[in-house]
Design a protein that fits this description.
Layout lengths: L5 E9 L13 H5 L2 E9 L6 E7 L10 H6 L4 E5 L11 H18 L4 E7 L2 H13 L22 E5 L5 H8 L30 H28 L9 E3 L28 H6 L7 E3 H8 L8 H4 L7 E6 L7 H10 L6 E5 L12 H15 L5
Parallel strand pairs: 3-4, 3-5, 5-6, 6-9, 9-10
Antiparallel strand pairs: 1-2, 2-4, 7-8
Helix pairs in contact: 3-4, 5-6, 6-8
Protein name: Alpha/beta hydrolase
GO molecular function, one term: hydrolase activity
InterPro entries: AB_hydrolase_fold
């Protein structure tokens, strides 16, 4: 395969800010000059037939390691950020989908690409699935907290690639949150019987204990759901109010310590390294959040964005690629998403041993690009 020289092109993409008076973003620049940022990476020679678009609800994808690799294979690709790239605590999945729609429209109307294929890596996977589901069959008119959204003018993409993708932020947190916490205001008050990291915890974990642990995780999620809903009720007469709060200890999935649960090629541990240390860290999953964002993003009972559900209405060409050594997006979840897809010719590709970020796996990126490029050709999405 020919390797093309590539060039990065910084993009400024206008987006439609919320008009409900809520201040979601601290930055005055972002509020007064609503602009999304993208990095369009182009081969020296390329066709305007197809472009790939990458995004994540809150992470910065402007320099993602797949960008230059795709462009070097001759395929134009843009990584873009949503308005929440530096403001994850306020993330609303519905508005992130609106932002992704601005990127799809930008590639089509400003740059003249005939087709746009969405690439969802990690947490980008459920965002892309949610977007495409609403673009094909719009049903959602409000966020879970009742704020109006307009997803009716989203342009459907022409293809969907999910790589190392998890099924949704709410599902991840439901599996990761530490159920030993009994007081949300005091993370040191715990139920010792549910402490995954207790020094005397024996491995492999007993099935009965894991079942109770999972039930307790859901109970904690629903306690926070109730708190978030109560905060919204209490602030109903205060336009723009949104309670911010901290969710402690959210890196405690039993699969991190016991690899006999949900077997794969992964090593024990988490994508953060030592999961017990990450469980106490400031930067853990869902650590800082608002009531509105919690319901839209992290609540399994309330979120609108769940890939296994969304993919059931997505008929566009879809491929799901599992990274079998992944400690965050598990192979079983990729299989679940593949099984849910409404694409009658959908494909599941399993990449042995590859980890979430492909660290110290020098051939990993090239192998991923090769398999995805072949899929694009088979589905007649690129030459």
């Amino acid at each position: 395969m020919r390797v093309e020289p590539v060039v990065d092109h910084f993009q400024r993409i206008p987006y439609r800010p919320a008009v409900d008076g809520k201040v979601e973003i601290h930055s005055g620049l972002s509020r007064h000059y609503p602009t999304l940022h993208g990095n369009l990476v182009l081969p020296e020679r390329y066709s305007a037939r197809t472009a790939v678009l990458m995004a994540h609800p809150a992470s910065n994808f402007l320099s993602h390691f797949l960008l230059r690799a795709f462009a070097s294979a001759g395929i134009p690709i843009m990584g873009m950020n949503t308005r929440y790239a530096a403001n994850e605590a306020a993330l609303l999945m519905e508005r992130a989908a609106e932002d992704l729609g601005a990127g799809v429209r930008w590639l089509r109307e400003t740059h003249g690409f005939e087709r746009v294929v969405l690439l969802g890596f990690s947490g980008g996977g459920p965002l892309m699935s949610f977007y495409q589901s609403q673009a094909e069959s719009p049903t959602i008119t409000t966020t879970p907290s009742g704020d109006p959204v307009d997803l009716g003018d989203l342009i459907p993409a022409d293809g969907l690639m999910l790589v190392g993708a998890h099924p949704g932020r709410a599902r991840v947190l439901r599996n990761w949150i530490d159920p030993a916490v009994v007081d949300e205001n005091d993370p040191y008050r715990t139920d010792p019987a549910l402490d995954l990291y207790a020094p005397d915890r024996e491995l492999p974990l007993a099935d009965e204990w894991v079942a109770e642990y999972r039930d307790a995780q859901l109970r904690r999620i629903r306690r926070i759901d109730a708190f978030a809903q109560d905060q919204l009720t209490r602030s109903a007469d205060r336009p723009g109010a949104d309670r911010a709060f901290v969710v402690h200890r959210t890196v405690a999935d039993p699969r991190f310590v016991d690899i006999t649960i949900d077997p794969s090629d992964r090593e024990p541990g988490s994508l953060y390294g030592d999961p017990e240390a990450a469980n106490w860290a400031a930067g853990g999953l869902a650590r800082f959040v608002t009531a509105r964002s919690w319901l839209s993003t992290w609540s399994e009972d309330h979120t609108n964005a769940a890939a296994p559900t969304d993919l059931g209405t997505v008929t566009t060409p879809t491929v799901v690629m599992a990274l079998c050594g992944d400690q965050a997006a598990f192979v079983s979840e990729s299989r679940e998403m593949f099984a849910a897809s409404a694409d009658p010719h959908g494909e599941l590709i399993e990449m042995p041993l590859l980890t979430h970020y492909l660290v110290d796996q020098p051939d990993g990126v090239a192998n991923i690009i090769d398999r995805l490029r072949s899929w694009l050709v088979r589905r007649r999405l690129t030459d």
